[in-house]
Amino acid sequence: MAKVLYVHAKGGPPVGYALPRVAARSEVHLLALSELPADSAPRVWGLCASVVARDDMGTDDLVDLITSRAREVGAEAVITFSEYAVVAVAEASRRLGLRGAGPAATLARDKRLMRAAWERRGIPQPRFRPVATAEHLAAAVEELDCPLLLKSAWSAGSTAHQIIAEPADAAAAWARSHTVMTDSARLGYAELHVAGAGEDFIVEEIVSGCVEEWFEGPGWGDYVSVEGVVAEGVFRPVCLSGRMPTVAPFTERAGITPAAIGSKAQAAIVDLARQAVEALELENCGTHTEIKLGAGGRMWVIETAARFGGAMTVPQIEEVFGLDLVAMFTDQLLGGSPEWPSEALTPADAKGAAGSLVVLAVDGAGSPWRHRHLWDSAAVVRSAPVSAGRLSVVRESSLPDGTPVPVYDPAAGANTMAALCLLAAERPQTVVRDFTALVDALPDILPVYAREGA
Predict the structure, then answer these.
(1) What is the pLDDT of residues 99-108, one digit of tens each?
(2) In terms of CATH, what superfamily is 127-205?
(3) What's the CA gap between 18 and 293, in Å, rounded?
């Protein structure tokens, strides 16, 4: 049986979902760069031929660590689904002569390099400037048109996002973003390979989205993601996922598969995603490309990644399209030729719909809850106002029951989430409607923890 080194870190699809699917195709040796979730650890350990934590290895260089461990176990592929380990795994795979994202993987991780590559190709995107100091930011604010969005070049999950409404806001935004990146690093949500990555930022103009021209029903956000894969240098789109509106400044609340987009519009979106991915010259990796939708058919590429979408995007695809992307990608890295879709799948190809909801302590309008509450997964599943769907709580991505729900911090983004809920239904619009109702009902469902405002 083929041997795979599975590099686990924060982010990506839950390890309790992904690792068993890799284990079904290979002998798995686990290299844990971050602690395994308590709910999944026993099962994961039982599926692995060996388990080693980063602290047990004798080197601080992550690529050397991955490379040496892969050689020790005789790995024929190195795999990760974490945004924070993508660059290191790509470089280790290159050194080992194994299939991987390739030497250009950093372009799909560092937003400064990513945007520059797109700019050279004339790919539509918000106007931007890379910034490394407060002085750089002040100069960029004078060159661009407010409002602007400041974000870390290496962040994920909308972490360290700050809106600059006018030039006078720049200094405070710079200080706050730096503080959040420091805090995120302590939590394990930070780039693991590139030293000083927390000091790199970009600032970009905020473009105006338009939902009505793209979606038939209400409740959708103004951007989508194109899920796909690069196989031997060829981009293969899989499907589109939609969103509910973000929570200010731009924290994702929910992702829905498939996106309820018409076939003509989907073709245009996929074509733009193809241009964006091909500009990065990747080799073998999952892809997740976010595209902002505007009026009159205008679109802008926000960012892409050399890995599959995080949270429950991959399980949602398996639920509605029957594609086990983890297993297929494992086969790809091991030298196989899995049957990727010949073109992006549409809502007509789907059997139902699925979505994941991030539980944040804000209502549908983005306002903080009046009181603080305790997380209670059983109460949510029992009392959620879902019409006909199957609701569950992803325990691996949720706080233990009885834990106070964190106060939502706009700058910290998804770092202040309490839980992740998964819903399967017959139609994408049903998922959006039920999640909208659940967001409004959560303060009434969850036990009160404290009467002070949240």
Answers:
(1) 999 999 999 9
(2) ATP-grasp fold, A domain (3.30.1490.20)
(3) 31
Q: At what angle do helices 313-321 and 15-23 cross, to 10 degrees?
A: 60
Domain ranges of the chain: 3-98, 127-205, 352-454
Phi, psi dihedral angles at 187 (to 5 degrees) = -85, -5
Cβ atoms of residues 236 and 340 within 8 Å: yes
Judge contact between 54 and 65, C-beta under 8 A: yes
CATH number assigned to the domain with residue range 3-98, chosen from the 4 options 3.40.50.20, 3.40.720.10, 3.40.50.2000, 3.40.50.300:
3.40.50.20
Full-model pTM: 0.95
Per-residue pLDDT tens digits for 227-277: 999 999 999 999 999 999 999 999 999 999 999 999 999 999 999 999 999
> What is d(CA 269, CA 262) in angstroms, rounded to the nearest whole number?
11
Distances (CA, A) of 329 to 60, 236, 249: 29, 12, 34
Give 270-322 as a DSSP string.
Answer: HHHHHHHHHTTT--SEEEEEEEEE-GGG-EEEEE--SS--STTHHHHHHHHH-
Task: Decide if 330 contacts 4 (C-beta within 8 A).
Answer: yes
Amino acid identity at 390: R
